[in-house]
Amino acid sequence: MIAETWLPPLAGGLLIGAAAALLLVLTGRIAGISGMLRGLVLGPERGMRMLFLLGLVLGAGLMGYGQGSLPQARSGFPPVLLVLGGLLVGLGSGMARGCTSGHGVCGLARRSRRSVIAVGIFMGTAVLTTYVVRHLGGIQ
């Protein structure tokens, strides 16, 4: 395997872990995107939350600029399924009191039992959904 294949994901993972650890140490906050977004709308510390979310967008943009192109949106996918999927992800994040970043990155690192269960459900649902869509639903 050549470095171009594994080096960017490794660097990204290290940066995500370092940023999550730094946020926890400096502010006591968990780097969960759904919680940051919910707090931006409903809670305190809006400036810090806005900077966190802006950093996600700018970081992705810088990565795309460095690679010479941004990822392309998938064409031909039914918009109603995209909206339904987004609503279900939002509902699930609310029910789990966190999202994959909060539970998967921060919760697992803190050995949270609730996060282990949430990540198991997230991942199991992702595997099942992918199987249904790819093999039973006819959407490629």
Q: Could you explain how this protein is built, in words?
A:
By secondary structure, the chain is mainly α. It has one domain (3-136). It is built from six helices and no strands. Helix 2 crosses helix 3 and helix 5 (100-109) crosses helix 6. The radius of gyration is 17 Å and the shape is globular. The mean pLDDT is 84.
Radius of gyration: 17 Å
Number of helices: 6
For the biggest sheet, the summary is: none
β-strand percent reads under 5%
* Alpha-beta classification: mainly alpha
The average pLDDT value, as a whole number, equals 84
In short:
By secondary structure, the chain is mainly alpha-helical. It contains six helices and no strands.
Core attributes:
6 helices; 140 residues; 0% strand; mainly alpha; 78% helix
Please specify the SSE layout and strand pairing.
Elements: H1 3-27, H2 33-42, H3 46-67, H4 79-96, H5 100-109, H6 113-136
Helix pairs in contact: 2-3, 5-6
